[in-house]
Design a protein that fits this description.
By secondary structure, this protein is of the alpha/beta class. The chain is built from 28 helices and eleven strands. Its main location: membrane.
Length: about 700
């Protein structure tokens, strides 16, 4: 007999008060620890092994910086903003994560999915404000100064800033929306960190994230096709954007710009070939080939000296100013407009960052603090939003490059920020003649990893059909409806799949493995022996209100006995027998003698006297579950069949005690509850 330990009762009020006193007290040591935790750089930077780490950090920082510049300019197309704002985002994100991040390897900055989500909100608000979403107008030939706005769009929008009416153009309003959205996303992330809501990321399974990324990649690909072939179509908004965009593309395919088509074909061939060669010979290369930078430099030179914009009307990036725009507080009125949109943005940004951080921390044998990562990503959004930047996240592709080039710490992030700063201060105007189709090619080629997920579908289906269905549903909703709706649909659908699994779990009758004390499913294994007069039933899920009926139906079906129907049938026979006896007829209703009637009342199909319920897979019981077990105990007892429970965990036993399953004084508990199936079977044989 196993005796349960007696646990001392915990005074929760005292525990909470003690924690509050401890957290509210302020000592110099506690303040120092708080600063060390909030700025992890203060812990690891003094211990930095310069001779051992510096070369790898500098090399990886330079490579990421070189990759970051063309990607930042390209992803500005996704966000619907000017390239200068993407460069600001990349610069500030690297500096802030260096100070606050706990991962040594992740590369935080501009990310395609986040840029797409920002761009969809920006486009929607521009449309509601009355602006034209067509961004293919010829660029203004400004002098590159910060004060010159591209006024090709003549629509103006009146904003009230601290009581002063200020006229704001399309570009000004677009970055205002983006910074307000980014600020709100950062606030959500910081609040989630304060209230320790990092567990929210658990509801985003790998199938949901992969499906979301693949569906969003299809949306990104679709949005870039018009730049690839040089046609001018409006940027589609709302649900079904992917389908509407493709319809508009085919309607206007005859207007394709031959120069852009040829340039796109050449760039895609060069980029894909370089990527494939890099993947094949990556073990021989000390660092990845800077193919994007080479393509951008060559394409810019060809476009500038070939005058592709003037001669062939090829769309180019236009003037990119140098320096920093004075900081500005995000508009509160705009925050209210985008508050709801910022929530999925905050969750997706955090989840991608934490999942990548944990993956590389496990690979390189160190630990991260998920809650601090929440703060780091939150402030990577809040602080840059004052400097005309938009939302950021960790990116897998750049993180893989970072680790492959010898990154040891986030010093590499500072080096990358310095490369971006060099472009911001001096080199940005040189990209004036860069064709937008080249940027679109860089974006599309960067989606190879996400689009290759389609090749994994057969293998995924072989591993788990339900997860494959979750992937397909999430991907389809993200691509065909919208990214935010797709993410929500994926989360809800994956939860429904879990609920359905617990509602209709596996059930089985068990047989004994010969010459052992172990029992298994007699439908799955051969050469199992049945125990005479004993049925062993296994239910592989928690027993609660949603699967109660399935539990009972499965039990009755497998044992071939419904005790309620059998009890009703017996009562019917007994009633008919009494009626015939009153009439003096010694033969019963079915024509049998009284002695034969007794045999008829105990049907032949009842071939067992004991039911053993294997509770090893029942993780918990709710009130309905306890009542269900009490119900079958009573119903089978009416048929002189005893019910024994085996392999119950402590929480299930406690639920049964509280529910009165064992009676008031638990006197019959040792005859109803057993710690193994074999013990229950031996007890049943002894009782025979």
């Amino acid at each position: 007999v196993m005796e349960r330990k007696t646990h001392a009762k915990i005074n929760r009020k005292e525990v909470i008060l003690a924690k509050l006193r401890k957290s509210c007290s302020c000592t110099p040591q506690k303040l120092k620890n708080f600063l060390m935790d909030f700025f992890p750089v203060l812990r690891w930077l003094p211990k930095y092994r310069c001779k051992e780490y510096i070369w790898g950090d500098v090399m990886s920082g330079l490579v990421i910086g070189i990759i970051l510049v063309p990607q930042a300019i390209a992803y500005s197309l996704l966000a619907g903003l000017k390239p200068i704002y993407s460069l600001y985002t990349s610069f500030f994100a690297n500096i802030i994560y260096f100070l606050m991040g706990t991962s040594r390897h992740v590369s935080v900055g501009i990310f395609s999915l986040i840029s797409l989500m920002v761009g969809q909100v920006v486009d929607r608000e521009l449309l509601l404000a009355g602006f034209d979403l067509n961004d293919d107008a010829p660029p203004a030939s400004g002098d590159g100064s910060l004060q010159n706005d591209n006024l090709s769009n003549t629509t103006a929008f009146n904003l009230t800033i601290v009581g002063i009416n200020a006229e704001c153009g399309k570009e000004c309003y677009a970055i205002g929306i983006a910074t307000a959205l980014t600020f709100m996303a950062g606030v959500y992330q910081v609040l989630m960190g304060i209230f320790r809501l990092g567990f929210v990321s658990m509801y985003l399974s790998e199938s949901v994230l992969d499906g979301f990324a693949t569906g969003a990649s299809l949306t990104i690909l679709t949005a870039q096709v018009k730049y690839l072939i040089g046609i001018k179509i409006p940027r589609s908004q709302g649900h079904g954007m992917l389908v509407i965009t493709w319809i508009n593309i085919f309607r206007n395919i005859s207007q394709a710009n031959l120069c852009d088509v040829i340039t796109s074909a050449i760039c895609i061939v060069v980029l894909v070939t370089a990527k494939e060669l890099g993947d094949r010979y990556k073990h021989k290369l000390k660092f990845p080939l800077p193919t994007e930078l080479v393509v951008i430099v060559v394409a810019t030179l060809v476009s500038h000296y070939g005058k592709l914009n003037e001669v062939y009307a090829s769309s180019v990036s236009g003037a990119i100013p140098t320096g920093f725009i004075p900081p500005k507080v995000p508009e509160f009125n705009l925050m209210l407009r985008v508050a709801l949109d910022a929530l999925p943005l905050a969750i997706v940004s955090f989840v991608f960052t934490v999942s990548l951080s944990e993956m590389f921390a496990k690979k390189y044998a160190y630990t991260i603090r998920a809650n601090q990562e929440m703060f780091a990503v939150g402030f990577c959004n809040i602080i840059p939003s004052f400097f005309h930047s938009f939302a950021t996240s960790a990116a897998l592709a750049k993180t893989l490059v970072k680790t492959s080039t010898g990154c040891q710490t986030q010093i590499s992030g500072v080096i990358s920020a310095m490369v971006v700063l060099l472009v911001l201060l001096f080199l940005a105007p040189l990209f004036y003649s860069l064709q937008k189709c080249v940027l679109a090619c860089i974006i599309i080629v960067s989606l190879r990893g996400a689009l290759r997920k389609f090749q994994d579908v057969p293998a995924r289906y072989q591993v788990n059909k339900v997860d494959t269905l979750v992937w397909v549903v999430t991907m389809s909703a993200s691509a065909l409806v919208s990214t935010e709706i797709g993410l929500l649909v994926g989360i809800v659908f994956s939860m429904l799949c879990i609920i359905v699994r617990t509602q209709r779990p596996r059930t089985a009758l068990l047989g004994q493995i010969q010459d052992t004390s172990f029992y298994e499913d007699d439908l799955e294994y051969e050469n199992l022996s049945t125990v005479p007069k004993v049925k062993i039933f296994r239910f592989e899920a928690p027993l609660y209100y949603a699967n109660r009926n399935y539990f009972l139906k499965s039990l009755y079906r497998l044992t071939n006995l419904d005790p309620n129907l059998e009890a009703a049938r017996r009562k019917k026979y007994e009633k008919k027998e009494k009626q015939h006896l009153k009439k003096g007829n010694h033969r019963t209703a079915n024509g049998l003698g009284i002695g034969e009637t007794t045999l008829q009342l105990v049907p032949k199909q009842i071939d067992f006297q004991t039911l053993v319920v294997d509770c090893s897979s029942i993780s918990f019981l709710d009130t309905t579950g306890v009542n269900t077990l009490k119900e079958i105990l009573k119903d089978y007892k009416n048929l002189n069949i005893s019910v024994l429970l085996a392999c119950c965990n402590p929480s299930v036993i406690d639920s049964l005690k509280r529910g009165g399953y064992f009676g008031k004084d638990f006197g019959c508990m040792q005859e109803m509850l057993f710690y193994s199936i074999h013990n229950a079977v031996l007890f049943a044989k002894d009782q025979k």
